[in-house]
Amino acid sequence: MERSMPHCKVSVLMTLHNKGPYVLEAVQSVLASTLEDFELLVVDDASTDDGPAIVRSIVDPRVKLFVSETNQGRPAAANRGLDLAAGEYVAVLDADDRMSVDRLAKQAGFLDRNSNVGAVGSWLPAFGGDGRTYAMPTTDPDCRALALFGMPVSYPAAMFRRSVIQEHHLRCDTDWLTPGMDYLFVLKVGAHAAYANIEERLTHYRVGEQNMRHGRDPWADGRILATEVLKRMGLPHDERSVRAHLMLGGVLPRDPSGSDMRAVAGWISFLKRWCASSGYCPADAMDRELQKRSEWLFMDVLRSQPRIAGSFLFSPGQFRWPRARHYAAAVLRRGRA
After folding, report:
1. 255 exposed, middle or buried (CB, 10 Å; 0-12, 13-18, 19+)?
2. How far apart are the first and last CA of the chain?
3. Alpha-carbon distances of 314 from 78, 199, 263, 267, rounded to whole Å
4. What is the CATH number of domain 8-206?
């Protein structure tokens, strides 16, 4: 098996495919790290641009470039990096992102102090787009509640405990070539260790046309991914369940109906019962996550289709006076229009 270098504190894993315009900035952000005991593994997946040449030109013994002759996909490139890693911890950085100078030191220090945690992330400010910051939950229960709907620890900002990955032979699914490979890998880690996030902006996420999800149909991709997630968690994954789960996850169909909204209300009740009976996570954490998502969904639909939103409001367990006031105001505005 290929080996990168002798043991170090952190292996930084960067997969590369046709991101030449960004990779130098990404590598330089790693080299500026205040933690110096690291290796940077750049695994190129048969790029056709100048990305590999740019990496090759960087003179630093901690930077190691591994080039694939044929394009095998991001999961295979990530797995090659995991096989190569020599660090106690493995940090991920995408080739178009950048990290803060103290990211490695803070995340490694956190894992040193919390031996039960297998994956620690951070808040994720975006650049190149609307400039939003993705704030992630800090505790394992809140992370697990979120994990039903999306990454509990953002993969591009994650540092993993390599012993957990190696002991349980965790790798990315090489046949998963639509968006979500990273989400599914993070779920695998969570089956064996706790999650956590540091409430600091330690990795900066670049938004643009180079992102895998750019220009794709979020509903079509979401159906594939949600079906797999529900299946892996032992939850119903028929069409009705998947549709309700996607809507609760913030991905709406083009034509949500009253029947859809009632199905979401029923799905919320089901998830609460499932959580209580399975012990998946503490009930209060799941209640907080479901409450937050139901509010997002109700207000989103209310803005364009108030009467459809009413189907949710008047479903069992979903009536709230603040919602009722918003609903009444929206219906009155629509009636005057």
Report:
1. exposed
2. 69
3. 47, 37, 12, 15
4. 3.90.550.10
Percent of the chain with pLDDT strictly greater than 70: 95
Cβ 294 vs Cβ 318: under 8 Å: yes
- Provide the angle, in degrees to the nearest 10, between the axes of the packed helices 321-336 and 283-304: 10
Q: Give domain limits for the chain.
A: 8-206, 218-336
For the chain, what percent of residues have pLDDT higher than 90?
Answer: 89
Condensed to tens digits (0 to 9), the pLDDT of residues 293-312 reads 999 999 999 998 999 999 99
Tokens linked to 132: 């939003």
Q: Return the axis-axis angle of helices 140-147 and 283-304, rounded to nearest 10°.
A: 50
The sign of the dihedral angle between the CA atoms of 121, 122, 125, 127 is: negative
Q: Is pTM, for the whole model, over 0.85? A: yes
Q: Is the predicted pLDDT of residue 248 greater than 90, yes or no?
A: yes
The token pair that represents 95 in the structure block: 């080739």
pLDDT of residue 130 exceeding 80: no
